[in-house]
Amino acid sequence: MRQYSADLTPPWKKPKPAPEVPAEAGLVVEEPGTGFCGAVIRCEAGTVTLEDRFGKHRVFPMEPRGFLLEGRVVTLVRPPSSALRPTRTASGSVAVPGARARVARAGRIYVEGRHDAELVERVWGDDLRIEGVVVEYLEGVDDLPAIVEEFAPGPDARLGILVDHLLPGTKEWRIAQSVTSEHALVVGHPYIDIWEAVKPSSVGIAAWPRVPHGQDWKTGVCRALGWPENTGAVWQAILARVGSYKDLEPELLGRVEELIDFVTDSGEA
Known about the structure:
Elements (H helix, E strand, L loop, with lengths): L19 E3 L5 E4 L4 E9 L2 E5 L5 E5 L5 E3 L2 E6 L30 E4 L2 H18 L2 E4 L6 H8 L7 E5 L7 H9 L4 E5 L28 H9 L5 H10 L9 H15 L5
């Protein structure tokens, strides 16, 4: 007797096979059932271990169509054994397997806000730990002269400062000029807010919208794009889309690299 398939689902209603993606170390994916987003750190026995930005680990089965990669449904598969250890950090530097974090330097990098610090940590965190550089945030630059004076930068305690929307002639530019010295370097990027330094394509939009002057920029962006106006939650969603330096605009990349080089340079010829 001829056997017939019990699957009566019309072909056009069956889900299309999701692309298979090797679960290589460092790949950032989201498990849609829980919303957990993290980088692959281990892949074994049909499971994958993800680590989120807080260092929390979760183990998930590698089921078909089980993950989202940049918003697309994918099936994770076990990669070749040689791919399980990343050869590059998120900043593009050569990874140093087993490297221990260096004791923190006296020098520091200051950024304007918490979001700036989180983005720098996400992309340059491995590099900064190896170099022993600590990143702190200021919550604005109005008090920068007093902060720099108290820090008292010197040859063995260099200070690097990253400022948002640093344009010639602005108040921020004048403050930056007043504190710049041989051992204190202030650099800036042209973006109104650090969100804008994330490439639009990485967060699934065509461009960052223009927000009318006088309106809170983050709130205006959320309204223009139809996003929830919970800017903290929106930022975490944006940050989750940043897997490496490739997701950031070059105007930010160059400035952060410049600060790291400055703080880690003793200044000796």
